[in-house]
Amino acid sequence: MADARPAALSAAAVLLLTGAGWAAYSTDVLRTHPAHAATPAVATGRALVVRTDVRQQTTVTGTLGYEGSYSVIAPSTAAAGAGTGSGGAGMITWLPAAGARVSRGKPVYAVNGQPVLLFYGAGPAWRDLGPGVIGPDVRQLNRNLAALGYGTGLAGDQFDLATEQAVELWQQATGLPVTGTVPLGQIAFLPGPLLVGQQVAAAGGPVPNGTAIVTGSSATPDVQIPLDPTLAPTVRAGNRVLVTLPNGATDPGVIAQVSRVAQNPASGAQNQPGSQQQQPAVPVTVRLLGGVRGSFDQAQVQVAITSAEDRHVLAVPITALLALPGGRYAVAVLGGGAGGTPSRTVPVRTGLFDETAGIVEVSGPGLAAGRYVAVPRQ
To answer: In Å, how far are 88, 309, 314, 319, 336 from 370, measured between CA atoms?
Structure first.
């Protein structure tokens, strides 16, 4: 079992001292009746000793958003040339609305009535792709064609006969000119699905020359936390978290990244009239494991970070602890009588304090799951 954590003890002490009568009772009992507890000066109830998982948590505030910052760039006229693909010279005839989610194989914009389709890949499209071309962009093309069901075994970096046949099937199914080649401007590569944030260009206007048409982010939700530097040593990548959304729903998550450097807040925020001086913070990124429902982008959320966990240990309510001199604790173990009279006081060693669940890890002579301990009656 883990040793007591000073930070957790100080937090628990605040809870223990909310009832002065309970603390006074504990001191009197142990001084006068070390083996048998007397009737307490405050009304008591009983609580079960359980065997469970105990987590030490810290609750902080974060901002809900989405991972990454993406831009869909139109090919430059010099690179694409007029009449190649749906890029180059022409008029924008359709754009996705802000908030739309564009996935693999779907249009990300349209030029002269022809869609430009989104494929997944780390590198951008930068040239025409056709028979004999070799490179990582061809590998990205092959993987997307296979994922969309237009070919099998298309994982290499060469545009061969199998690639050409798959391209023809894909072009026919999507209403594109069936050429067996992919001219620059017919597809756009992004690392994953695009959550559209802003239309930079305008439908009905000319295709911009090598600049952004739409911008956005990934569709993967995350939470950004400006963490107090004093808490940073207890937070590590991989720590589990529970995020409470504005509507009260909760989503599990995990710490994805903890910056090694504390950052100062934006200078503009500190220069606002009436603003208070803000302290540096350590940027922390949380990856959510569940699906966020509703429109909560940039909403403030509460994040309970699990910094330590002990599994399958004995635990009692924090309010069951009796304060002893020297920072020690005990619990009043109830006898088997119907009245629930405290039968003896047992010194305990404390482990993790789970303030979220209101329990504390304990061990001591005679303690076992299924026994009852005294707690102040609410």
So the answer is: 75, 22, 10, 18, 12
